[in-house]
Amino acid sequence: MVFTLRAKPTSNGNRISKILQLPQVFLSFSSLTPNSLQTLHNGLESNTRELDFNAVFLSCTDTHIAKCLHAHLLVSGNARNIFFSTRLVNLYADLGDVSFSCLAFEQIPKKNVFAWNSMISGYVRNGCYRQAVDCYSRLLTTSGVRPDFFTFPVVLKACWDLSDGRKMHCWISKLGIGSDVFVAASLVHMYSRLGFVDDARKMFDEMTVRDMGSWNAMISAYCQNGKAAEALEVFEEMRLEGMKLDPVTISSILPVCAPLNDLLRGMLIHVYVIKHGLEFDVFVSNALINMYAKLGSLDPARRVFDQMPVRDLVSWNSIIAAYEQNNDTTRALGFFVQMKQNGFQPDALTLVSLSSMVAQSGDSQNSRPIHAFMMRRGWLLEDIFLGNAVVDMYAKLGSIASAQKAFEAMPDKDVISWNALITGYAQNGLASEAIEVYHMMEGCSGIVPDQGTLVSILPALSHIGALQQGMRIHGQAIRMGLHLDVFVGTCLIDMYSKCGRLDDAISLFLQVPRMSSVPWNAIISGYGIHGHGEKALKLFQEMQSEGVKPDHVTFVSLLSACSHAGLVDQGQWCFQLMQEDYGIKPNLKHYGCMVDLLGRAGHLEKSYAFIKNMPILPDSSVWGALLGACRIHGNFELGMFASNRLFEVDSENVGYYVLLSNIYANVGKWDGVDKVRSLAKDRGLKKTPGWSSIEVNNRVDVFYTGNKSHPKCEEIYSELRMLLAKMKSLGYVPDYSFVLQDVEEDEKEHILTGHSERLAIAFGLISTPPKTTIRIFKNLRVCGDCHTATKFISKITEREIVVRDSNRFHHFKDGNCSCGDYW
DNA sequence: ATAGGGTTAG
């Protein structure tokens, strides 16, 4: 089939507007622009004696011109020249037009190894790895041409399958070209890319001649397989052999500084870069920015970025991520704006940073648009990273339903997707849902739990006190070899201490590495919630003497430990130490702890004065702490004052109304109690439903207040009625000030009896053998009346009862509580 | 006419 084309006449174009006889595929020539014709014309004219195709090849800057040239080659008969047609294959590949590259290739009647190599390379340069490998197979099976040492460096790059790789390796050996530096480096790279670093190293060791590329290949092999120390070893070896370092070496080795936490080395490399003038390489500068950013040195990162003469998308993404990861959303956003002003289109990595920024700043408004942007481009269908970022973003913003939807919409999920969802539920207080998702994940073939999975599920188990399930996870961690991992270990410590097994927490603490503050914080907090303030302090001293730097979390744990144990002086000492010795600015949590510490100990005026001197605005937790202290110490006036301030900042939390009503009741102001009740009712409070849980036979039962749907409901209530009678005979008087509902007295008694902690205790009593310790979890603070009741119950039933509430542990035994009513 | 080794993420 022949198609006739007449090029559109342009001012000068008439001279080349001769009629060409072309195959039909050149129909697309009709889209040739006058400009491209002009360029071609100039190229052709530049040599007047005969067509200088060499010059024309060089002037081909877009695929239309290339096609025009192609046409001329065909018409002039030069297409039969294998030199020209091979160049054409390469030209199309460079211009990104794989199908025409392929066409040009197929038009070559007798393809030699140059043509085959060019075609394979063309596929690889355009990311068509599958086709490249297929083309290589065709070369082997049908062409009668032998691959050579130009073939393998290219085709090895395309190889994504170990068996293919080994076959190629065999051919290389058979052809005796394995000693070629290019081929050998490519083998190193192939093995490392497929994760077989040891094979890569073997290739490297077998090399008799090593050039820069060989060393670089080995270094990057280690880097990309997470073996930072080995990478550095090779790097040092390379320097000892007197090799110079080129930009490739530098940009390969720089990323290992961050995981090794080695800023000094990074700076030394930077010095080398400056000394040898390598800083103008974009890869090098980008790697420097990333190195500095990951090690928290934003200023040097910024300086490198500022002095780059040319920046690419990676440079922009890196500087944006640098600020985003160091919690400076505002500057990160500023760079994003600049990036767009400089004409760069955001890519998937930019979007990952953006979603992180939105999550960090709690900017719910922008979450949808970002999500929509990704969907419009179809990126969510092909990039698991992005899907995971979206799930994480919604979860962090508290929109767990959106997170779930985004998760479900992902065509493929990996272990990180599951972890993100589990963490999302856990961090939004939905522990049971988190556990449910975890079980679903377990039933999913192809998903292997990793460190992140353990770190996401353990806090959920701690939250509801699922000790037995937690121990199962501990076993799994051991099997995975992760139980001594700092993060998993810390979660386990936290799990054991929150599930009432402080001893197990301690013995675990003694096993995990404790160079960082993370496990220390967990164990100090563990001592604190169990009421062992002195021990917490002692541990803090050990921490200091071991040279571990405490952080702001350490001081929250420590201050609350002091406050639970009534260690006022020590608490104040910590508060000072934190600022003076460690330069940590107290945040609201620290202030809350201090107010609590002073107030609970009875220093109400001091506590109030403390609030007045705060340099930041007190929030509800701070005023709530003062209000709680006023209840304990019966200070009515200050209590009124505190509750007024409190309701100015948070009028939604029903717990504070209970406190206030309690204060009124303590001084016998029943009208005040009524007032608070109706106030709470009028505001239609979104109250957090109170629930308690207990684990019996590997199963966690959760009881909501007044819940009557439990299968053992009848037995539970009859147990409670029986206990109530005995308690009363021992002198128990119900304290109705803990009931907010405006109902009759006996109804109030009924409400107290139906409190979730009592249902859980009663269930524990009827479901376990005598003398067994009962362990209960309550999501809010334990109710004051239930606290009294539990003391009686522990005496009547001769049981130890351990109640963990949102604040601390209460060990009930023989009618007493470990907290000494100081809580 | 054809070749290897490089920087950013959840």
Explain what this protein looks like in three dimensions:
PPR repeats lie at residues 112-147, 180-210, 211-245, 281-311, 312-346, 414-444, 516-550. Keywords: Repeat. The chain has 823 residues and is mainly α. It has 44 helices and 8 strands. Among the domains are: 256-267 and 282-344, no CATH class; 691-817, no CATH class. The chain has a 6-stranded mixed β-sheet, sandwiched between helices. A hairpin with a 4-residue loop joins strand 6 and strand 7 (809-813). Helix 5 (98-106) packs antiparallel against helix 6 (113-125). It is elongated. The model is unreliable at 1-31 (pLDDT under 50).
Topology, pairings included?
Layout: E1 2-5, E2 20-23, H1 34-45, H2 53-59, H3 63-76, H4 82-94, H5 98-106, H6 113-125, H7 129-142, H8 151-157, H9 162-175, H10 181-193, H11 197-206, H12 212-224, H13 228-240, H14 247-253, H15 263-275, H16 282-294, H17 298-306, H18 313-325, H19 329-341, H20 348-361, H21 367-376, H22 379-382, H23 384-396, H24 400-409, H25 415-427, H26 431-442, H27 451-464, H28 467-479, H29 486-498, H30 502-509, H31 517-529, H32 533-545, H33 552-565, H34 568-580, H35 588-600, H36 604-612, H37 620-632, H38 636-649, H39 654-666, H40 670-682, E3 691-696, E4 699-704, H41 713-729, H42 745-753, H43 756-767, E5 774-778, H44 784-797, E6 801-804, E7 809-813, E8 816-817
Parallel strand pairs: 5-6
Antiparallel strand pairs: 1-2, 3-4, 3-5, 6-7, 7-8
The structure holds one DNA strand of 10 nucleotides.
